[in-house]
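Re-running Alpha/beta hydrolase to confirm reproducibility after the cluster update. Everything else is unchanged from the original entry.
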Amino acid sequence: MKKQTASKKVTKEYLSINQKRQGILIETRNTSNPVLLIIHGGPGFPLYPFMSAHQVDLTHHYTVVYWDQPGTGMSGVHTEETIQALVDDAYQLIQHLRTKFNQSKVYLMCHSFGTIVGTHLAHQNPQYIATYIGIGQLGHVLKNEHRILNQIKMFVRQEGDHGGLQLLEKVHLDYDFHKNKYYQLLREWYTARYKVGFSSRGYGLFKMIQVILKTPHYSWLERLNILRSGLMGAPRLSKEMTRTNLLDIAQEIWVPMIIMQGVHDLQTTLEESRIFFEKIGSRYKRYYYFQDAAHAPFIDETEKFLFIMKEIVAPHAT
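Result of re-run:
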């Protein structure tokens, strides 16, 4: 007789975390399953719209918690956050989830900028982290950006695009590269052209906006908050991010560490994520390559992604 699978339940909660109203969305089939807290990137770029649109369902093995960081989505009141403030918020959220689901530890799944928040969280509070899962892992952010620029130049040379190469040669990267509008335009253009940005399938701005505006369970205001945060940016967080070097703490991280990396990712490069991985102090660490993926392997290679996520927690899943 075929085993019946419980239906998925989706609930939305608003919490006061460090005197800020913040929203979470919980997906579950069985609340006794391990809790997976998803820390999104950006800054200000929630993952739920894209996981939902592409039916990336983790609920067969986890109770999944999508947290929108202050300033975007369900937590859309604009605030000037710091990275440490986000770490502190995530810590308080973990305490809430531990109590709510009666579990001693949670699993972390962090994407892109979220890997900065999550790495600090795992470093500072290892006793509450069952496993850290980094997707598009950052290490030394400025060096990562130099690798992106050099790789784009290589693609352009291979195409014989001398005009494009001249434009790229004018770029000089420093810690304020996030303010360089000229470079940002070139970067967005070429990563989209070579399908090395969000998805190896190609994922333009118009498609992203469509996905966000169709997000289920979000109000219209919450959907617009995502677009607003994308347009306004987060100057303080971006400034901190460009000066981040996680290699300084990697050797002091002792929780189990899983890194997943799209080979074609030119948002967070394979080389920098691998350097970070080699520095990790934890005795248990695994690195997974996604040969056909860019920055979102959970979209580009969903089946492989779900298989790995199952393997991480399989002994404990119901």
